[in-house]
From TrEMBL:
GO molecular-function term, one example from the UniProt record: acyltransferase activity
Organism, scientific name: Anguilla anguilla (European freshwater eel)
Keywords: Acyltransferase, Endoplasmic reticulum, Membrane, Transferase, Transmembrane, Transmembrane helix
Residue stretches spanning the membrane: 29-49, 61-84, 104-123, 236-254, 266-285, 381-399, 419-438, 450-468
Protein name: Membrane bound O-acyltransferase domain containing 2a
tRNA processing is among the record's keywords: no
GO cellular component term of the entry, any: endoplasmic reticulum membrane
Source lineage: Eukaryota, Metazoa, Chordata, Craniata, Vertebrata
């Protein structure tokens, strides 16, 4: 009853009968229906409000109003928090000096998000992990802070002080209030993101994105695409099929393998350790399709509106992965902790890297994990997960630096190494994220006690026993290797990610 009361006061009750029929919470039904509506609207937006037919002003206004409508339908008057957060930070951008504006916006945006998360969790529904109004605020916080740093880079810092990626992302003029609200709250990304750079969004609205990508493309195989806009139809259909499969897998498999069984006394007492390891992997594997569904659907919505074009492949086919948030096969077959993280929630990882890891002068890895925990919310399980993640990252780095080169002598040895590291990575990831799913301290510590904190201990031993070169020496070696082998070989997965992952002087550790 309490759940229904909370749901009814934070969004529309129009879909309550459907919620009861399919036995899913109303807020989740509202979310999915609104995303499907946004998908249909996105096709209309691309066809009838194309930049050749409509002015940027009209596109901004329509995208913003539709975004607010969806927010009100899902979250009721709690959606006003989106306006308050955006309004406060825009005032800071306008009134504060460019030298410190980005810091003030960062503190205000993250502080307001944390305030809303604390009140929602500890006042309303502690322990209920569901769609809530702070979810969109998390994406808006990313956009606000990213834009603040990009304005600081473009309007205050000198050109020679910027990295190659920062030069691309730098914003050279202050956005208008309409542009700012459209960027933060457009209907394509208001409910589930993903985060994108301000320059990419404005290029999409103004209709210059295709032209820029055409200029970047080269080779005869791409010539026939330069006269017309590429169609996202095939990519949207493929992503919708991925969504359908992910949703079916989640609905059926998750109920068979609930994560909570990992901490049941009877299960722990009656199941041998190898059985507990196998069940842990299966139960955590069953939770991932939920995220695959949400992020892939959000990506399809943006593509359907014409946003997300990222140039052409070598065979001349268009790529629509500019703001994609995950690469499923790379996640499931990851052979390192870093590879998993690089392909999971990609846009959030890039945000963490750009606003924290690249700019933090001390202990950037720990600072980045702490920021990620604060951004996710106030449940203690988040902090247990990210604290464990720090140990995992340091241990994985130590193994890679000291052991990997010994397995590169032959294809057989490399295959053995890949199999071993795949198994180790999957177990480590599952072990790490259990508190993220369980949320509370008690159940999370009960799980770790049932494993005798064995992976924590193993990671600590590896970090102590295996030396790793200091960060500044590793950066120097990376810079020297870049000078010897210039970046640009192969097709990048993401226009900005290519700079981040291949040309930048720091590796991603988020």
């Amino acid at each position: 009853m309490a759940t229904e009361t909370v749901s009814s006061c934070t969004g529309s009750n129009l879909l309550q009968p459907i919620s009861k029929i399919i036995n899913l919470p109303l807020d989740q039904v509202n979310f999915v229906v609104c995303q499907l509506f946004a998908l249909l609207t996105a096709f209309w937006f691309r066809l009838y409000l194309h930049p050749r037919k409509s002015s940027p002003l009209v596109r901004h206004v329509v995208a913003t109003l539709l975004g607010f409508y969806l927010a009100l339908f899902c979250f009721g008057w709690y959606a006003l928090h989106f306006l308050v957060q955006s309004g406060l930070t825009y005032s800071i951008m306008i009134l504060a000096s460019l030298e410190h504006m980005h810091k003030y916006c960062f503190v205000m945006a993250l502080g307001y998000l944390s305030f809303c998360q604390i009140t929602r969790v500890y006042v309303f529904d502690y322990g209920m992990y569901s769609a809530d109004f702070t979810g969109p605020m998390m994406v808006i916080t990313q956009k606000i802070t990213s834009l603040a740093f990009e304005i600081h880079d473009g309007m205050f810092r000198k050109e020679e002080q910027l990295s190659p990626n920062q030069r691309i992302l730098a914003v050279r003029r202050m956005p208008s209030l309409l542009e700012y609200l459209s960027y933060n709250c457009n209907f394509m990304g208001i409910l589930a993101g993903p985060t994108c750079s301000y320059n990419d969004y404005i290029a999409f609205i103004e209709g210059t994105a295709y032209h820029q990508k055409h200029q970047e493309s080269n080779g005869k195989e791409n010539g026939k695409y330069k006269q017309s806009d590429p169609s996202p139809k095939k990519d949207v259909i493929y992503k919708l099929c991925t969504c359908a499969i992910s949703l079916l897998v989640y609905l059926f498999v998750f109920r068979i393998c609930p994560v909570e069984r990992n901490i049941e006394d009877g299960f722990i007492a009656s199941t041998p350790f190898y059985g507990q390891v196998l069940y842990l992997y299966l139960s955590m594997l069953a939770t991932r399709p939920k995220y695959y569904f949400v992020w892939t659907l959000a990506d399809a919505i943006n593509n359907a509106a014409g946003f997300g074009f990222n140039g052409y492949n070598k065979d001349g086919t268009p790529r629509w992965d500019l703001i994609s948030n995950l690469r499923i096969l790379d996640i499931e077959f990851a052979t390192s902790f870093k590879m998993f993280l690089d392909n999971w929630n990609i846009q959030t990882a890039l945000w963490l890297k750009r606003v924290c890891y690249e700019r933090c002068p001390y202990n950037p890895t720990a600072a980045t994990f702490l920021l990620s925990a604060m951004w996710h919310g106030v449940y203690p399980g988040y902090y247990l997960t990210f604290f464990t993640g720090i140990l995992m990252t340091l241990a994985a780095r130590a193994i890679r630096h000291n052991i990997r080169q010994h397995f590169l002598g032959s294809a057989t040895h490399k295959l053995i190494y890949d199999v071993i590291t795949w198994v180790g990575t999957q177990i480590a990831i599952c072990y790490t994220v259990v508190p993220f799913v369980l949320l509370a301290v008690g159940p999370s510590l009960k799980f770790y006690r049932s494993w005798y904190f064995c992976i924590h201990v193993l990671c600590l031993l590896l970090v102590v026993a295996l030396p790793v070169k200091p960060r500044h020496l590793r950066l120097k070696e990376q810079q020297n290797s870049l000078h010897q082998a210039p970046c640009g070989e192969g097709v990048a997965q993401n226009s900005h990610a290519s700079t981040d992952n291949n040309c930048n002087q720091k590796g991603k550790s988020t």
